[in-house]
């Protein structure tokens, strides 16, 4: 299983999609007042409905938690994931 990586130069977290030709799912962010603001999630269309977005979200939230950061959700996909996974309430601040 692929691991989510932070690509700060591109302002996004990336999840390489196994079995594809180098495609990735990505969660875009910006930093503001010391907090990470998740703004948009992108999963290639042909991989929608296969759990790729959920694996990306779990990896993003786990990475943020491991770094001791806080996150603000401005992305509807990440907000919906959080609504189903309230165990991340310790890192979500908005």
Automatic annotation (TrEMBL):
SUPFAM superfamilies: Acyl-CoA N-acyltransferases (Nat). It is an enzyme of class 2 (transferase). The keyword Transferase applies. It comes from the Bacteria. Its EC number is 2.3.1.-. Residues 5-93 form the N-acetyltransferase domain. GO terms for molecular function: acyltransferase activity. The keyword Thylakoid does not apply. InterPro entries: Acyl_CoA_acyltransferase, Gcn5-rel_NAT, GNAT_YJDJ. Keywords: Acyltransferase, Transferase. Gene3D superfamilies: 3.40.630.30. This is GNAT family N-acetyltransferase. It comes from Pelagibacterium nitratireducens.
């Amino acid at each position: 299983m692929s691991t989510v990586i932070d690509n700060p130069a591109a302002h996004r977290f990336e999840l390489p999609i196994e079995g594809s030709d180098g495609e990735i799912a990505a969660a875009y962010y910006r930093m503001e007042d010391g907090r990470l603001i998740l703004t948009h999630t992108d999963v290639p269309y042909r991989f929608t409905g296969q759990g790729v977005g959920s694996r990306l979200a779990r990896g993003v939230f786990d990475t943020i938690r491991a770094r001791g950061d806080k996150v603000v959700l401005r992305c509807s996909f990440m907000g919906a994931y959080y609504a189903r996974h309230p165990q991340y309430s310790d890192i979500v601040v908005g």
